[in-house]
Amino acid sequence: MTIPAQSAGARLTKDAAPGETLLKVTGLQKHFPIRKGLLQRQVGAVRAVDGIDFEVKSGETLGVVGESGCGKSTMGRLITRLLEPTAGQVEFEGKDITHLGVGGMRPLRRDVQMIFQDPYSSLNPRHTIGTIIGAPFKLQNVTPEGGVKKEVQRLLSVVGLNPEHYNRYPHEFSGGQRQRIGIARALALNPKLVVADEPVSALDVSIQAQVVNLLDDLQQELGLTYVIIAHDLSVVRHVSDRIAVMYLGKIVELADRESLYKAPMHPYTKALMSAVPIPDPRRRNAKSERILLKGDVPSPISPPSGCRFHTRCWKATQICTTVEPPLVELKPGQQVACHHPENFEDQAPQDTVLLTAAKEAAALVADEVLAESAETSAAVAAEVETASAEAEAETDAETASAEAEAETDAEAATDAETASTEGETPSKEK
Ligand SMILES: Nc1ncnc2c1ncn2[C@@H]1O[C@H](COP(=O)(O)OP(=O)(O)OP(=O)(O)O)[C@@H](O)[C@H]1O
């Protein structure tokens, strides 16, 4: 098969119009069985991904963040179908691909590509970069127009590498350059969706920005759709349109970037955000508002009951230990799974007694943050009250005017009736 070579500025996406749903994930789960004994009987399971729902629209970048062990990589491997889900559904361009076999997946392998975290181990040291970047053509049995070599050299220049270095080996390149090679390989087959798993975390900070900018430029030029996985918000904050925050196999908040940064609702999101330094000279002398999360993410073999974050949350109350909060849209474009969200009305106001663990966690939370938290909650509550009072007043006014209108109408009708009756009477009398 021959595929036309793409010019560097051409759009590579084929069918999906921008804004249309490209990927849809429903109730996705991956439980890795734990086996023991001679008979290898299953004694438990690692609930790496435990029921997540989200959509990715064509042309957008969805950032996925969370601490190590939250299930982000597993999620990435599930949507690229490198792993078989335990339950749930993955749809790509409206087609259910959850259980497609190797043959069924072959055409999809071109459309969905993955960039891996480690640019050192993800490239075969015994192959030249020409062979590495050209491998997808061989695997898919396709010949690009103009031949593999020419196309590989074009891809090298697209990612900012010298096309003359076609015959060099991976060890001759720096970490950032190797990640560019990985990106060129991912772009070889004109994918629609690129899942990048921690694409820059193995790189020096100075190189990270270059690779992130490259990904951003390629998206503009080639109309790519990205799912970018990262363990903190500093990488995804500039490139994502929407951000999903994962904790212990679940999505705890999913919002557009603007809303998430302006007013994060899940305490976990707030904690992740407070860990990102803000390079704002006006705030250089301001006291830093750090929320230090105590301990590690609990084991996904037996996650905490109720809200999984309750063991580390400074707002946790009784309800958080028993009732799992559903992921619901509390503000337009902002979904959150929390009983006591930040920057919004409390979802369980009757439950006010903090758990002991929450009090201990609070000790680690800077006073400024707690004060700010209380202030925003009070402000939101006041806003909600004002809004509902206004709404009530509006309703009252509407009711009054409707009643007045109805009365006027009734009066008019009575008048008309009377008039017509009066009018009729004389005629009858005539
Ligand atoms: N093949 C596997 N078998 C058993 N458990 C696994 C397997 N792969 C991942 N896990 C477990 O699933 C959980 C989620 O892992 P995953 O790598 O998806 O998390 P992550 O958020 O991507 O973390 P990291 O950033 O460290 O990669 C972890 O507890 C991990 O140990």
UniProtKB/TrEMBL annotation:
GO terms for biological process: peptide transport; transmembrane transport. The keyword Amino-acid biosynthesis does not apply. Pfam families: ABC_tran, oligo_HPY. Residues 404-414 have a biased composition (Acidic residues). Residues 23-273 form the ABC transporter domain. It comes from the Bacteria. CDD domains: ABC_NikE_OppD_transporters. GO terms for molecular function: ATP binding; ATP hydrolysis activity. InterPro entries: AAA+_ATPase (IPR003593), ABC_transp_ATP-bind (IPR050319), ABC_transporter-like_ATP-bd (IPR003439), ABC_transporter-like_CS (IPR017871), Oligopep_ABC_C (IPR013563), P-loop_NTPase (IPR027417). Residues 377-390 have a biased composition (Low complexity). Keywords: ATP-binding, Nucleotide-binding, Transport. PROSITE patterns: ABC_TRANSPORTER_1, ABC_TRANSPORTER_2. Belongs to the ABC transporter superfamily. This is Peptide ABC transporter ATP-binding protein. It comes from Streptomyces resistomycificus. The lineage of its organism: Bacteria, Bacillati, Actinomycetota, Actinomycetes, Kitasatosporales.
